[in-house]
Design brief:
The complex is a heterodimer of chains A (about 110) and B (about 160). Chain A contains 5 helices and 2 strands; from the N terminus they run αααββαα. Chain B is an alpha+beta fold and about 160 residues long. Chain B has 2 domains: about 80 residues, SH3 type barrels; about 70 residues, no CATH class. Chain B contains 3 helices and 7 strands, in the order E-E-E-E-E-E-E-H-H-H. In chain B, the strands form 2 sheets. A 5-stranded antiparallel beta sheet of chain B has the order 4-3-2-1-5. The longest helix of chain B is centred in the last third of the chain and has 34 residues. The chains are: A alpha+beta (about 110), B alpha+beta (about 160). The interface between A and B is medium-sized, with 29 and 34 residues.
Chain lengths: ~110, ~160
C-alpha cells in the first residue's frame, strides 16, 4: 500500500469530526467540533487544505449548500465521508490499536 | 452530557427544559467537559435586554425545532434575528481582514469567508463581545493564509512539472 492510503493525524481527526456531524458537516461546524472535543486549535485554512487533500484521495466528497444571512450570504460547503475514507480510518485505527497493545501501563488511560 | 441523549452541535438553536431557566431558548456556543454546556441567550425586557452566556447541565437541554419566541424584537433592543431565528448583536468582522482574504486563491475562499463570518456572528460576538471577536477574526485570517498560500504554490509547481 502506498503512503497515499495512510492518514495523517489531523486527517483522522477531520474524518472523525465528519462522521460525528453527519449531514451537518461544513467548515465552521467541523472547526468547532475539533476545537471543542479535543481542545486543539486549528485554522480554517489548514482545515480546508486537509479537506481538499482528502477529496483528491477520494476519501470525502463535497456539495455546496445554501447561503445564510449570518454567513454574509455565502454558501456552505458540506463534506461527507466516502467508503474509501471510512476504510482508511478503520486501517489507521487498527494500526494505532495494534501498535499500542501492551503499552497501556506506559500510556495510561486516554481521557 | 451523560450519554448525550440528544446530540446537539455547536451553533444549533436549543431550549432549556429544566432548572429555573426552563423555557429559555438560545444558541449552543460551547460544550465544556461533556456534562456542562454554554448557551447564548437573550434575557431582560425593553432597554435592559442583553445577550448573555449561560452555563447549564447538558441534560437540561433539548433541540429547539422552531422559534417559539416573538417573531421580531424592537429595534431599540440592539439585537437582530435572522431567518433561522438566531438572535445576535449587530457587529461586523473587520473589513480590512476580509479584504486580505480576497487575496487568497479562489478555491474555497467564499466558503472560508462564510465560515469565519458565521463563527464570528453566532458564537464569538455573543460570548466574548465585539472587540475580542474582531481580534479573533484577525488572528484566524492570518493563520489561515499560510496553509492556503502554501497549498496553492504546491499546486502551481506540480502543474508546471507535469507540463514540462
Amino acid at each position: 500500500m502506498g503512503s497515499r492510503g495512510w492518514l495523517g493525524e489531523f486527517e483522522q481527526l477531520v474524518l472523525l469530526a465528519l462522521l460525528r456531524l453527519g449531514d451537518n458537516a461544513y467548515g465552521m461546524r467541523i472547526h468547532r467540533e475539533v476545537e471543542e472535543r479535543i481542545g486543539r486549535s486549528c485554522s480554517l485554512g489548514a482545515l480546508y487544505t486537509t479537506l481538499d487533500r482528502l477529496e483528491e484521495k477520494g476519501f470525502v466528497s463535497s456539495r455546496v449548500g445554501e447561503p445564510t444571512p449570518e454567513r454574509g450570504g455565502r454558501a456552505k460547503k458540506y463534506f461527507r465521508v466516502e467508503a474509501a475514507g471510512a476504510a482508511a480510518l478503520r486501517r489507521a485505527y487498527a494500526a494505532t490499536t495494534q501498535m499500542a497493545q501492551g503499552l497501556e501501563p506506559l500510556l495510561g488511560r486516554a481521557q | 452530557m451523560s450519554g448525550e441523549p440528544e446530540y446537539v452541535v455547536v451553533g444549533e438553536r436549543v431550549r432549556i427544559r429544566a432548572s429555573a431557566l426552563a423555557g429559555l431558548e438560545g444558541v449552543l456556543v460551547r460544550k465544556k467537559d461533556g456534562f456542562r454546556v454554554v448557551l447564548s441567550v437573550v434575557l431582560g425586557v425593553q432597554q435592559a435586554t442583553r445577550s448573555v452566556a449561560v452555563e447549564i447541565d447538558a441534560d437540561d437541554l433539548e433541540r429547539a425545532s422552531s422559534c417559539s419566541q416573538p417573531a421580531e424584537l424592537p429595534a431599540w433592543t440592539g439585537f437582530e434575528r435572522d431567518s433561522t431565528c438566531f438572535l445576535s448583536q449587530p457587529g461586523n468582522p473587520p473589513r480590512a481582514a476580509k479584504l486580505l482574504l480576497l487575496l487568497l486563491p479562489t478555491k474555497n475562499r467564499e466558503h472560508l469567508l462564510g465560515d469565519l463570518e458565521e463563527e464570528f456572528r453566532t458564537i464569538l460576538v455573543p460570548e466574548y463581545g465585539l472587540r475580542k471577536a474582531q481580534l479573533w477574526y484577525w488572528w484566524h485570517v492570518f493563520i489561515s493564509m499560510a496553509p492556503l498560500v502554501w497549498a496553492a504554490v504546491k499546486r502551481i509547481v506540480a502543474a508546471n512539472l507535469c507540463g514540462s
